[in-house]
Write a structure and sequence with these properties.
The protein is α+β, with helices and mostly antiparallel strands. Helix content is 57%, strand content 12%. The chain contains nine helices and four strands. It has helices at residues 2-22, 26-38, 49-68, 73-80, 97-111, 127-130, 163-176, 181-194, 197-206, and strands spanning 86-92, 116-122, 143-148, 153-158. The protein has a four-stranded mixed sheet, with helices on both faces. The chain is globular and about 45 Å long.
């Protein structure tokens, strides 16, 4: 097992570059999700009624975030000053509720600097990449990998949730043993009240800003 883990660690840069080469941009991803909604389908291997409904809900969520999320002016200046050429490689699926809140924010960050590219890949289509970036042994999404193009190295990882939401989830799991539908609804309320600020700050903390 240690030999396998070491091999995966060594292969991570190669896997990230493969993911970037096959990734779609955010606009293409949004078109894909909207098309799936019209076809009453979802991404991923599991075409369940629940996942189809989550995809429909997430399409509406992303549409709302795309329209309403605004990066504060001072933060815009910080992002614009970034000189490193980076790629945000996001692993996701259309049914993922956390991703529906996160991807629009991550995309807005990338839009403010031409040195930042944002590529999206689907978890079930790239299991070898997903398995190199597990969260506590699980294929949790969304997962964002920050790639330094010039130095060809990973400079950060983020996901599947902002720090405050992660603390909420961990505390609830410790107390209740698992996440209930009621808690998941509570988490969605938190995302709406937070207005994307937690996600924005988490990503900013990973950027090599001056």
């Amino acid at each position: 097992m240690e030999v396998l883990e070491k091999h995966i660690q060594q292969d991570k840069p190669t896997l990230v570059q493969q993911g970037i080469s096959m990734g779609m941009d955010y606009g293409t991803y949004r078109d894909l999700v909207h098309h799936l909604v019209e076809m009453e389908q979802t991404t991923g291997h599991s075409q369940t009624e629940a996942n189809i409904q989550y995809t429909q809900l997430n399409d509406r969520r992303m549409k709302r975030w795309d329209k309403t999320f605004v990066i504060p002016e001072g933060v815009q200046e910080q992002i614009s000053s970034l000189k490193s050429q980076l790629v945000f490689l996001t692993i996701t699926e259309s049914w993922c509720g956390d991703a529906a809140h996160s991807l629009p924010v991550i995309n807005k960050i990338a839009e403010f600097n031409p040195n930042i590219d944002h590529k999206i890949i689907l978890r079930d289509e790239v299991p070898e990449i997903m398995d190199a970036f597990l969260t506590k042994g699980a294929r949790s999404i969304p997962k964002v990998i920050l790639w330094d193009v010039e130095n060809k190295q990973i400079v950060g990882e983020w996901g599947p949730r902002p720090r405050v939401a992660t603390e909420m989830v961990n505390a609830y799991k410790q107390e209740q043993g698992k996440l209930t539908p009621e808690f998941k609804q509570e988490l969605q309320v938190w995302y709406n009240k937070d207005k994307g600020e937690g996600i924005l700050q988490d990503i900013l903390d990973l950027l090599p800003l001056e």
